[in-house]
Amino acid sequence: MRPFFGWFFIIILAPVLIYIGMIAGEEANNVKALDTVLDEKIPISKIQLARNSYIYDQKGNLISEVISEQENRIVVSYDNVPEEIKQLYLVSEDQHFFEHIGFDAAGMLRAVFTNIKHQSIEQGGSTITQQLARNVFLSHEQTYNRKLSELLYSYQLERTWTKEEIFETYLNSIYYSNGVYGIATAATYYFGKELKELNLAEMAFISSIPNNPTVYNPLQHFENTKSRQELLLLKLHENELLSKEDYEKEIKAPIKLNVRGQIDHYPDYVTYVHDELNELIAQKEGYSKKINEANEENRPAIKKQLNERINQITRNGIIIHTALDPSIQQKVTKAINSRLPYESIQGSAIVIDHKSHKIVALSGGKNYKKFDFNRAYQSYHQPGSAIKPLLDYAPYIDTTGATVNSMIDAGKFCKGIYCPKNYSGKNYGHVTLETALKNSYNTPAVRMLNNVGIEKAFSYLKPFNFDKTVKADYGLPAAIGGFTYGMSPLELTSAYTAFANGGNFYDNHAIIKVTDLQGNTLYEWEEKPVRVWKESTNDQMRHLLASVVSSGTGKRAAFSAPYIGGKTGTSNDYNDLWFVGLTDKYTAGVWVGKDKKGSVRGIYSSGIHLQLWKQVINN
User: Which positions are catalytic?
Assistant: First the structure.
């Protein structure tokens, strides 16, 4: 009996206290009015419920839902809630909602006496406003302090918000089991429909769940949910909101669940989009600059602020528009999964539309799972001869005015103790630049770097922003791929897009723009081209790269197309196999190797990296 008498005194005393406070506020100028005290102690502003964000492909198709704070929620406005839904909740939860001041004293008394009579909890007595206060601002602990706080919060809510705002927030905040929050989300999750598409029987069915999300979980206790649905429909009939004929029709209407789980496709690409979103927000809101300028002691605090800001933005609901081409992404994923059956050998591939400067597909590795280590942009490898066009040939042609037919010594080279050799071990004498590149001779490349000068040649790499290029790399071994860490597949592929843009380099991105849920643009990348080498140099380089494919080390990548050019790369001891190349529309890169350094010489002769590239980019 004690709980019931506790509730009884709260119900009696709370209105009295509020009434006395209101009188006191009016009559005593030197005492603060109750409303003023409540405004100070319980300030309530419009809350922003955590809601879903969305990632779309280039054609506007949804590819991933981003659920914030483990609350799967689609927010619906009051005006877009069907009248039948409103009636269902009013007759079952709070018939006097539009008349009371936050709590219904008469209703609470009726609930107390009913519960005393049955010696059990038959009625709750809480208004919609009280339930909202409990769900959003308070807890569900069964103490009298919490219950009294609930009444005060409810009264304050009614003073601060309109009835429509309270009802809307209530419908969007309540829990519908299985991680689902809000009436609109429930419609989508359980029936695969928008809320407005449901019939009355379906509306009543999902409206049954919040009363006890465990007992009325339709995936585990369908019959319980159906029984309560029939009770809600009966209440509509008893309140003359549903005719007897329609009531009997609705309770017999079949309920066919069509559970629609979270949409989450293309994990390789979506993982990258999440990281790029962080980078975009950091850059646009100044966090990148702060982090770069901060000392080691202050940097963690700034990064924490950035993470909090990103969480705030995503929980408010955003739409991330990307350049993903699903057909190419599927092709990339299939190629990596099917052509690398060897247990310890991994691979990645990237495809960039170099005309729009957008990443249209990427593979993070075989059988990739979302948020796993993504080899497309998180792994770094020595580039082998794939670096030669960027560090050796383009700078040499750009500074000397050489052409594809210019001669270069492919014989023995030594500088100090450094004496690189050609792959075959042979010396070829003087050859054209075309012959040197298409056969990937090493000594001509080293001579070019030496001729240009290491500092000057490396200045040509700066626009590409290779993240792990360090001062120790500034030496002649870099001419043939000798780097401390190397490049990620995405970095190297992105650099090659300069050959498709007349010698200009554009940063390539997956994200086109970020908007709010109403379509207003919040963030987008700025295109700032940087000229890396002269256009005349680029013309010579395109000729050289085409020769690699037509009659050089990249012949297995050839297929019929207006233009194909590229460069193979093999690091020391066959640890890494590369092919990076371009067609008239796309630039693509493929890396094959092991996560921990190890030789893949056994598959080198098959030209697996060339086969992968051809499969990925050939339409």
Answer: 93, 385
Burial of 590 from C-beta contacts in 10 A (0-12 / 13-18 / 19+): buried
Place of tokens 């921990």: 596
Residue 108 CA, chain-centre distance (Å), reads 46
Q: Is residue 58 part of a domain?
A: no
Number of domains in the chain: 1
**114 membership: H or E segment, kind and range:** helix 105-118
Question: Residue 232 belongs to what domain range?
Answer: 2-48+77-252
Q: Nearest CA to 225 among 245, 203, 243?
A: 203
Residue 300 CA to chain centroid, in angstroms?
23
DSSP strand pairing (346-353 vs 586-593) = antiparallel
The 10s digit of each residue's pLDDT in 160-210 is 899 999 999 999 999 999 999 999 999 999 999 999 999 999 999 999 999
Query: CA-CA distance, 514 to 280, in Å (whole number)?
Result: 9
| Exposure b/e, 504-521, CB count within 10 A at least 16 = b | bbbbbbbbbebbeeeeee
Residue 14 has pLDDT above 70, yes or no: no
The pLDDT confidence band at residue 149, using thresholds 50, 70 and 90, is confident
Whole-prediction pTM: 0.89
Rounded CA gap, 161 and 167, in Å? 10
Q: How confident is the model at residue 146 (pLDDT cuts 50, 70, 90)?
A: low
**Residues 6 or more apart in contact with residue 171 via CB below 8 angstroms:** 76, 81, 85, 89, 182, 183
What CATH number is attached to the domain comprising 166?
1.10.3810.10
DSSP state for residue 527 in the 8-state scheme = P
Q: What is the pLDDT of residue 120?
A: 44
121 within some domain? yes
Residue 30 has pLDDT above 50, yes or no: no
In a domain, 412, yes or no: no
DSSP-derived 3-state class of residue 591 = strand
Integer angstrom CA distances of residue 336 from 166, 287, 368: 52, 36, 10
How buried is 249 (Cβ within 10 angstroms: 0-12 exposed, 13-18 middle, 19+ buried)? middle
The secondary structure of 193-262 as a DSSP string is S-GGG--HHHHHHHHTGGG-TTTT-TTT-HHHHHHHHHHHHHHHHHTTSS-HHHHHHHHHS---------
Burial of residue 572, with CB atoms counted within 10 A of its CB: 0-12 exposed, 13-18 middle, 19 or more buried: middle
Tens digits of per-residue pLDDT, 347-372?
999 999 999 999 999 999 999 999 99
Number of H helices, E strands in the chain: 24, 16
206 in a domain, yes or no? yes
593, β-bridge pairs: 346, 576
